[in-house]
């Protein structure tokens, strides 16, 4: 009898579980259903507004600020409404009719939603603003705390975000069940990202340090869905995926000959099973590698073409790789000709026969200035070698500001300034999207590394030493 009762209970449990699982699945995926988002945007300086989800859907904004977005959606979740260079988050269930009133000048605080899931979307405006106010005021102090203090600070932040949901619901009624689940996941993944960032930022902010995490530090990952296609509609989950990949591979010493980027690429198929999750990770990682190490991209490009099953992702990365291919190791370096503070012209060609370590920078660039002491240390280390040249090229519009800083800081190496024409050529020829940017040219005048390590990095000495002997 006891055995029979247990079986009945087991069957009932399984039945309830399958019912709940099927309901949850059904709540996330729909037959493509027409969704309507309309609104009025005051002070709009853009003729177009976009809905960003699994794809981008654009709609015109008329002269009075009115717009209508009609989309055939099949997934419920978080989307973004983008206007010019700004965006706000909103929750949509396929079939929703949503109305928005906002002023572009106060886009993030003035947005007011009506219609389906207005309660949830108006909360998202509050949530996004609360998240902004809870960002660390002193980034360095926050990420260089002792481990216990850091964890406590993150958990206090998470508590405030969760409490805000409860307070809002007490005043406005309970959330849609699916929204409540997703916003809870959003907060959890956001906290996980911050915790995974801790060792990386700690060592970045204190380059001479070596943070040692406790054995239980990564316990926060235990209650998270790591490989979940449904959670691709949770914004923080996408960021979580890339950080998790890095977090899990950073201490991988199984292959000393393989770069960290290649290790991450090879780890995707080991850590994840979902095809869409893997597609996104391959795509996002290749975007990152193209920006930071075209040489590494060349090592995995063939595998990427083979493994990527999303045609749009495959085409975009292939196009990007082809544009970067002129900067692969061994390619002839595009010429650069600039002037010193005294008006002397210096070109890369005139330095042929030397290894050239180039720093593209500007006086107004905070990260550039942060690298200067490390660059000076690097120059000091190689000061007795005549076969290496350290060349700093300023792209400042204000040439006086540049020359003044060079003089006041007594900056070493070859200090050059690029005029407007050369500035544009450098940016275009070396595909520079941000500074500081470091480049290594070998003694033959060919590219060694178009995305060389920063002076503050632990890899820079190895890269220079290898380039010197090749």
Describe the model.
The protein has 470 residues and is an alpha+beta fold. It is globular and about 75 Å long. Strands 13-12-11-14-15 form a five-stranded mixed β-sheet, with helices on one face. A four-stranded mixed β-sheet has the order 4-1-7-8. It has a four-stranded antiparallel β-sheet with strand order 3-2-5-6. The model is unreliable at 1-27 (pLDDT under 50). Helices cover 48% and strands 19% of the residues. α8 (260-271) packs antiparallel against α9 (275-292), α9 (275-292) packs antiparallel against α10 (294-307) and α9 (275-292) runs parallel beside α11. Among the domains are: 26-133, Immunoglobulin-like; 337-469, Glutaredoxin (3-Layer(aba) Sandwich), CATH 3.40.30.10.
């Amino acid at each position: 009898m006891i055995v029979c009762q247990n079986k009945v209970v087991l069957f009932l449990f399984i039945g309830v579980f399958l019912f709940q699982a099927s309901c949850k699945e059904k709540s996330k995926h729909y037959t493509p259903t027409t969704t309507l988002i309309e609104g009025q945007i005051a002070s709009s300086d853009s003729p177009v507004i976009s809905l960003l989800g699994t794809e981008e859907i654009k709609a015109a904004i008329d002269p009075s600020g009115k717009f209508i977005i009609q989309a055939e959606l099949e997934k419920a979740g978080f989307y973004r409404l983008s206007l010019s260079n700004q965006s706000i988050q909103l929750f949509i269930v396929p079939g929703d009719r949503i109305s928005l009133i906002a002023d572009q000048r106060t886009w993030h605080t003035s947005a007011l939603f009506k219609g389906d899931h207005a309660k949830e979307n108006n909360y998202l405006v509050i949530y996004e603003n609360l998240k902004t106010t809870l960002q660390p005021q002193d980034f360095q102090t926050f990420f260089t705390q002792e481990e216990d203090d850091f964890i406590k600070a993150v958990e206090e932040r998470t508590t405030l975000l969760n409490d805000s949901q409860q307070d809002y619901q007490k005043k406005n009624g309970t959330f849609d069940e699916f929204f409540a689940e997703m916003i809870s996941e959003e907060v959890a993944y956001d906290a996980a990202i911050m915790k995974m960032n801790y060792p990386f930022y700690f060592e970045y902010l204190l380059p001479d340090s070596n943070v040692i995490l406790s054995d239980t530090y990564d316990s926060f990952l235990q209650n998270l869905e790591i490989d979940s296609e449904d959670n691709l509609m949770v914004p923080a989950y996408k960021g979580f995926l890339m950080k998790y990949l890095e977090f899990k591979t950073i201490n991988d010493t199984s292959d000393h000959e393989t770069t960290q980027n290649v290790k991450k690429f090879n780890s995707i198929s080991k850590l994840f099973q979902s095809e869409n999750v893997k597609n996104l990770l391959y795509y996002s990682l290749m975007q990152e590698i193209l920006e930071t190490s075209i040489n590494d991209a060349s090592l995995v490009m063939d595998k990427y073409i083979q493994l990527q099953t999303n045609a749009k992702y495959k085409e975009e990365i292939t196009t990007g790789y082809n544009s970067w291919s002129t900067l692969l190791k061994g390619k002839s370096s595009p010429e650069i000709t600039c002037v010193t503070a005294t008006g002397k012209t210096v070109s890369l060609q005139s330095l042929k026969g030397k290894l050239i370590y180039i720093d593209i920078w500007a006086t107004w660039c905070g990260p550039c200035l942060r690298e200067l002491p490390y660059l000076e240390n690097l120059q000091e280390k190689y000061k007795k070698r005549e076969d290496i040249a350290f060349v700093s090229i300023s792209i400042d519009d204000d040439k006086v500001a540049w020359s003044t800083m060079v003089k006041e800081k007594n900056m070493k190496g070859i200090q050059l300034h690029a005029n407007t024409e050369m500035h544009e050529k450098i940016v275009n020829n070396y595909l520079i999207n941000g500074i500081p940017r470091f480049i290594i040219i070998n003694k033959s005048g060919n590219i060694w590394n178009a995305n060389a390590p920063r002076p503050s990095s632990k890899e820079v000495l190895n890269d220079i030493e290898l380039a010197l002997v090749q």
